[in-house]
Amino acid sequence: MSKTIDVAVIGGGPAGLAAALALVRSRKHVALYDCWPPRNATASEVRGFVTQDGTPPEEVRRLGREDLASYETFELHDDDRVRAVRGEHDRFVITSEHGEAIARRILLCVGICDQLPDIPGYRELWGTSVFQCPHCHGWERKDRAFGYLANDAAGVDWSLLLRGWTRDLVVFTSAAFDVPAALIARLDRARIRLEQRRVVALEAKSNELSAVVVDGGVRVPREVLFVRPPQIQTKLVRELGVKLDSRDRVHVDERGETSIRGIYAAGDLMMAEHGALAAAAAGARVAHELDEAFTRELVLAGER
Predict the structure, then answer these.
(1) Coil, strand, or helix at residue 282?
(2) CA dist., res. 118 & res. 253, Å (int)
(3) From-to residues of CATH 3.50.50.60 in the chain
(4) Nearest CA to 131 among 109, 60, 139, 247?
(5) Is residue 186 exposed (0-12), middle (13-18) or buried (19+ Cβ within 10 Å)?
(6) 3-state DSSP helix/strand/coil percent for the chain, to nearest 5?
(7) Residue 27 and which of 111, 153, 216, 283 are 20 to 30 A apart at CA?
(8) What is the full per-residue pLDDT of the chain (304 aa) written as tens digits?
(9) H helices within 39-172, ranges in order?
(10) Residue 175 DSSP SS3
(11) Was domain 5-113+230-300 assigned CATH 1.10.150.240?
(12) CB of 130 closer than 8 Å to CB of 42
């Protein structure tokens, strides 16, 4: 078993990279475990990230790793999936595909898993013309024919936001719920069309969305579809048994520490606001909080 490391950062996306950088700069021995496919793997560029707007996701990750490689207290466990974490505060045993390690603190930056519906054509268009976030993808597709597949009545009301990028918007309910009359009137006032028949398929032309097909084979021409699919925590987080909040996000205190002492969380798994920049900011903030508490303990124990 390798020597004890100060902090194991699990997850190598924007949150994990920013957290690892903050921690190595605080003279902590950091191991970054990176294996999970990133949520934005199908996206062609990262948007809204200051200095990196339009940069491909894999390039952002490469640059982040390059920054970290210059610090002598950093080690990268690439393509090394963490299978389990056991132990307790100050001595966690990490079991990964390549062996075991001991870490005094854990920072979870593993993101969250999108549950994509079983609609023909959906997965093939995910990340190219089917998107979650208009702040990330709305500008490049502004003034085109938008669609929005809502999960519930509250989601229907959310569609008003999409009108900031287009005047041509159709909201699809897929016959999954009833829309109150007052909400229908609200959509009419916003010049948003409502399609309540069940969505049966997405059609593509040249690998781009061309139509949403509803019951009866009716084609509703659309060029972009926004969705907000249900999400679940990763297997690792579920098996750890950390407390989740009412929205199934990892519950953390004001410092980013979970219900298990010594295990922290940052990024999409613990917050509703998603995006590369938000995740990186959360990673850096929680890393600083972790480091402040950890350093105080080390100094008072005579270890620093």
Answers:
(1) helix
(2) 36
(3) 5-113+230-300, 116-227
(4) 139
(5) middle
(6) 30, 30, 40
(7) 111
(8) 467 999 999 999 999 999 999 999 999 999 999 987 776 666 778 888 888 887 888 899 999 999 999 999 999 999 899 999 999 999 999 999 999 999 999 999 999 998 898 999 999 999 899 999 999 899 999 999 999 999 999 889 999 999 999 999 999 999 999 999 999 999 999 999 999 999 999 999 999 999 999 999 999 999 999 999 889 999 999 999 999 998 899 999 999 999 999 999 999 999 888 889 999 999 999 999 999 999 999 999 998 8
(9) 57-69, 122-125, 134-137, 153-158
(10) coil
(11) no
(12) no
HSE on the CB side for 165, CA within 13 Å?
Answer: 22
Fold exhibited by the domain 116-227: FAD/NAD(P)-binding domain (3.50.50)
Residues 6+ apart with CB under 8 A from 37: none
